[in-house]
Amino acid sequence: THEKICRYIAKETESVVVSVGYHLAPEYKYPAAYEDCLNATLHFMKNIEHYGVDPACIIVSGDSAGGNLAAAVSQTLASRSDLPKLRAQILIYPGLQALDFNLPSYQQNQGVPLLFRERAAFFALQYLNGDASHVEEVLEGSHIPADVRLKYRKWVSAD
């Protein structure tokens, strides 16, 4: 489903795009999808000569939950001195935070198809543990302890 956009990004940026099929929630819970993406990317990067790719031309990309995975893989690889550095990460409407579903972007887009606010919370729970019975608590923000909310307020807040 993503081959066309991957080819476009690769062509336009003169880079290599690593596109990984990964295990999906709720059948496979966190960290299965992350490990799939990380292991595939590590294999590719460790065997780069076999693929005939310039190590300076690697991009990791993803959309939606895949954007989350691409960001997580990029963060993990950033500290690896034994591998080539990524040229870039391309994140297309990534799911990057599930601390607060009441931020302006969630409020402004809560009724926009396909990813309604309630559906975003549902999918976040499915991804993490496969149990979506706590959607209301997540939407209210009661799933995060007050001390954690204060700790991350600098980065995750309406301000």
TrEMBL record:
PANTHER family reported for this sequence: AB HYDROLASE SUPERFAMILY PROTEIN C4A8.06C, ALPHA_BETA HYDROLASE FOLD-3 DOMAIN-CONTAINING PROTEIN
The Alpha/beta hydrolase fold-3 domain covers 1-132
Gene that encodes the chain: Aadacl3_1
Keyword Cell wall biogenesis/degradation carried by entry = no
- One Pfam annotation reads Abhydrolase_3
InterPro entries in UniProt:
AB_hydrolase_3 (IPR013094), AB_hydrolase_fold (IPR029058), GDXG_lipolytic_enzyme (IPR050300), Lipase_GDXG_put_SER_AS (IPR033140)
* Name of the featured protein: ADCL3 protein
What residues form the catalytic site here? Answer: S64
What keywords is this UniProt entry annotated with?
Hydrolase
Q: Which GO terms describe its molecular function?
A: hydrolase activity
Q: What family is this?
A: Belongs to the 'GDXG' lipolytic enzyme family.
- On whether Hydrolase is a keyword of this UniProt record, the answer is yes
PROSITE patterns named in the record: LIPASE_GDXG_SER (PS01174)
Question: Which superkingdom does the taxonomy of this entry point to?
Answer: Eukaryota
